[in-house]
Amino acid sequence: MAGCFKMAGMRWSVVRSFQTFCISPNISESLCCLFQQVRLKHQNYPRLRNPIWFVKKERTKYEEHLTQQNKSFIRDVVHDKYGGPPAIIGGVSTYQQSPLKIQPMDRGSWFLGCRRSGLIARNIGIYPMWLKDGTRVLTTLLQVVDNHVIRYIPPEEFNPPRTSVRNPKSKRRLGCLLVGAESADPQNFTKEYCGLFKDSGVMPTKILGRFLISPEAVMQPGTPLYASHFKVGDYVDVRGKTIYRGFQGVVTRWGFKGGPASHGVTKTHRRPGNIGSGGEKARVWPGQKMPGHMGNRYRILNGLQVLRVNTKYNVIWVKGQGIPGGTNSIVYIYDTFLPLRKPKEAPHFPTYYPEDEEPLPDEIYSENLHPFTAPTIKYEENV
Amino acid sequence: MIFNQLKKMALPNAARKLLLGVKSSFSLFQTTANAEYRYLSSVSNPKGLLSLEKEEENKVAGHKNVVPLECRFVYPEFLPDPRLDHRNSLREKLERMDMMNRRNHIDIPEFYVGSVLAVSSSNPHAPEKVTRFVGICIQRGGCGLRAFFIIRNVVDHQGVEMFYEMYSPVIQKIEVLRLEKRLDNELLYLRDALPEYSTFPLDMEPEYLPEGSAIPVNPIKVKLKPRPWLERWERQELKGVQDLGLPKRFYERAAAVAKPWEKYDLMAEYRESIPAEEQEEIFAEVYSQLHQLEVTRKIMKRKRTFVKPKKMG
């Protein structure tokens, strides 16, 4: 591949010299077009390096002719190794485990502008709640299932494929924290995938995500993360994969109005119409809204307020209903990056440790939210 | 052929048994599975047949079912939205918990479309911060905390409708002034009816039904105003409406666009309903608490009726 780049570069220089001495402008123009494309395609782009955790995940399952005894023996070995039987946590079938193989790490302290880990959650639906003044708000429920820290890669070692465009040689200051959610039977996964989890002592998880964190916010691999990682009233950004809609026309994709249904209109009910004018602009301008592929890409919704947290089922209620992805899809929750909604006070840092603090109540409500356990809202006479 | 295909499909056990049982006489099923049960309940089976089967099953098993089947008519909002891509068991459970918490603070009585209700709600703009509105319930719907109902009345010759969310914390009180059903599942045609059909005095006295009696069905037929209307009522197979008096072409068009086969689409019905087994599970979870609330309400009501004549005297 690298050789190929060099070749392309050399060819370009040859063409440039050729072009200067060339007599016929037509030939040079056509050649220029031909090679210019080649040059732009390979202009100093880094080779795609997949992150270390991008390994083959699913294993091909074939008939292994195991007896019932063999199967139960393997199951016992798995439970012994990971120290936990299968359990249903918050309505999701996973494993009850308490790893922490590695020596405890030093916990840093929070400072303004510090980046800590996020959570991996499932969007489980939307329902209305009411504020104390009687207004109705729609809330999205995000369930945090069985999140564990898997691995930490310090900034010096973390070498992501994409570097800063402005200053590619700038010193990297954020480390990478791998977080897994929803433990599953290791027999379902490949050897390489299971190897990622070896050091943490956590069972292989169905979902594996990464968060870029400040080195101060590091957590020991194996640390469980709970919904109370976020405090009520905090603002979060939620990232998810939008619903896949395939190739769509302009009415669905961009909300064009389409044409009339009748009055002599033929074959022009959902068409885009004109896509540009003539003269100097006689081409399709970049950014023209046209039919095409829609959905199935990551989008992020910023600045959602946490209204309520259920610590028993690990559910977070956030205000708003536009979270990317459908019900039961996976989302990533981060502390918001919006400057005016960033936390002013220290959040649970680096995360909420139930053993360190006083036990939280099952339900935590925001100050302006009306809990359903509270009596009916009545307005004061002289307000 | 159809039955063989149906056998393969993922129908709930009860529905499958029902289908097999009726295999010999399909016409019987046609007559019993009328539209009345389709919209009132989310159960895919006609009530009569299902209850018969349930009784048989109970006899075989030797125990009696605790949760009555009528729950799905009395508390329809406890059944979740049957759309499969919107369902999540934990969300539904949390939603039911919140609903029960709200029900501990406000008495949401049994009522149906056609019942006359009086709703008091907090209102920051009203002089006494409370608004009381009386009217006939013309529509009821929504699942879970989204449950709603619309009540309609005519005030000063002006039709007024109020949309209430059942679990909204600003609702202070819901009184049932007259508990009855009508011939249709939605009374939206009252908007195009003569005003006397939706006029109710604002100081209407509650009418008590004797305990244990069935909910009466009011067979009144409403007279609609002449066209133009909000909807094409002649196309909707309404039972509670007098002869519409339209020219012949309207009925011909209605017959041409009618889809009378849709009510026999069992798979569509299965998609639009919660299976009976799941309904039982859901009501088993909340029924004891609901029943307790109902008992306390009855006791309170009795006390109230006992106190009232004393005060009058």
UniProtKB/TrEMBL annotation, chain A:
Transmembrane segments: none
Region (Disordered) location: 261-282
Keywords, sorted A to Z: Ribonucleoprotein, Ribosomal protein
Phosphoprotein found in the keyword field: no
GO cellular component: mitochondrial large ribosomal subunit
An MF annotation (GO) of this entry: structural constituent of ribosome
Pfam families, A to Z: Ribosomal_L3 (PF00297)
BP GO terms, sorted: translation
Family to which this protein belongs: Belongs to the universal ribosomal protein uL3 family.
Name of the protein in question: Large ribosomal subunit protein uL3m
Source organism (scientific name): Zootermopsis nevadensis (Dampwood termite)
Automatic annotation (TrEMBL), chain B:
Keyword Ribonucleoprotein: yes
Keyword Mitochondrion in annotation: yes
A Pfam short name: Ribosomal_L19
UniProt keywords, alphabetically: Mitochondrion, Ribonucleoprotein, Ribosomal protein, Transit peptide
Gene3D superfamilies assigned to the protein according to its UniProt record, in alphabetical order: 2.30.30.790
GO MF terms, alphabetically ordered: structural constituent of ribosome
Localization (cell): Mitochondrion
One Gene Ontology term, aspect cellular component: mitochondrial large ribosomal subunit
Top-rank taxon, per record: Eukaryota
Protein's GO biological process: translation
Family assignment from sequence similarity: Belongs to the bacterial ribosomal protein bL19 family.
Protein name (record): Large ribosomal subunit protein bL19m
